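Translate sequence into structure tokens.
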Amino acid sequence: MTRFEIRDDFYLDGQVFKILSGAIQYFRLHPSQWRETLHNLKALGFNTVETYIPWSLHEPAQGQFTSQGMLDFEAYFDLVQEMGLHLIVRPSPYICAEFDFGGMPPWLLTYPEMRYRVDHPLFLEKVAHFYDWLFPKLLPYQSSQGGPILMMQVENEYGSYAEDKAYMRKIAQMMRDRGVEVPLFTSDGTWIEALEAGTLIEDDIFVTGNFGSQAKENTDNLRAFMARHGKKWPLMCTEFWDGWFNRWSEPIVRREAEDLASDVKEMLQIGSMNLFLLRGGTNFGFINGCSARKTKDLPQVTSYDFDAPINEWGQPTEKYYAVQRVVHELFPDLEQMEPITRKAKAYGSFPLAGTANLLEVAPVITEEIYADYPQAMEKIGQNHGYILYRSDIKNQYHEERLKALETHDRCQFYINQEHLATQYREEIGDELLFSADTEKVQIDVLVENLGRVNYGYKLGAPSQSKGVKGGIMINHQFRKGWKHYALKFDAAMLEKIPFDSPSTRPSQAPSFYQFKVRLTELADTFIDCSAYGKGCISVNGFNLGRYWQEGPIQYLYVPSGLLQEENEFIVFETENVAIDCLTLVDQPVFKDEEEL
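Result follows.
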């Protein structure tokens, strides 16, 4: 059993302890890479790892919990302890983390009366149910019980959202009531309004800051705030930002290695820190979030590289070695090691094996749900991905009008399987004209959830519910009678796709492209998506995430742990781009910044 205390400094078994931590989020890495990534943290001379626990992934449907595979945080924590590292856990209801809906489960959106992250009984009830499942799993890993967890976070950057101290106290009390013994903490920006609103300093809950530079100024703010409340706690930055996230159609955000090293040195001379992130990883599937803007929200890309010291594919960068050097300069007695490096492989190109037309196979690959009027995704039990709405109308043999109302986020219209138009949020609701020469006309509306806002005032906005909410009008009338097809792109859906020979490839409908790939040596690789339009790609039933010709990334990373000797890749393409081959390369592909 280890005794961790927060007094005038951090103490571990009575000895002063400096926290040298790096963020490594288990849910953004393939489990086969957990050990080597933790080794690389230790090779810096660091002693602690930090991670969030995303509620959304662990309770994907209300009352249905999972911690399998990539979500097996207990296996991850066992590995942390085996390697002699300490752990900081952030199990707050909201995590931000550039994660869809800030890590809150989208099924919360089916409760229109609910208010999130405040003292609202219904929200707190749902948090309590999650905590009833979660904390019995976390408690044995507390340092007070002989485990690696030093402390846990109450809420995340709450001072940038609200000032409801009753809510904060209830979250902290939930944790204590369920057996949390280690110190609790909060983390916020260091301006006074954030600290006053986001902390529980008056309840003796430890206060930390989040920033990525100007360590002296930021820690001076922390010190002054603590002093006003009679505290002489150690200074810590819980999120020392060493890079940044990226959004579609914008240039990659970069930070110079020596600039980071200089700022890290300054911070470590003052106090303790957690590098955010040591390794970013990947927004596999549809977990990417979205940046809120007044008119046009900006979805974040599949890569969560973050320009971190260890990049998305596990390679230590120039930043890594610069930080390692600084740590040695400050703490020459700390043991450091050579990091493990990974090597990707270029496998070449593979021919098309089969195709399928989404508009033909939708009733085969997923349940057909009927409703009089279009339902939001969450109302039919779908969190992420795409949803297809279909209705057959009588042809009036004149130019007809069509529009979708209150629809999020990206809407594609098809008339008798021919593409009519694509609309984004700022265009949705504009009227479209169409005509056909068949007695009955098949109307298909494909809606893509591009990612929910993960930070700021739009967290609780109606726009975070996805799909069609306001209805679909034809000739100024709300059309009654819609079939719904939830396209989740999970293994169950993908294995049902009936592929035809490549010669039957459809011309305009959203399409599935199948590739059968035999590999003799398994290594990381990258899918070159530069010739594709927009969609997502799976390998062996696992959704790697989205690609988009908008850039800046034009690749999808494929960890070797997802590969086997015989592989099936499925590309889902929505932009009428004929995909004839799948090319696996040994490095990521980016769009020229001049084109962005």
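Note: The longest strand covers residues 386-394.
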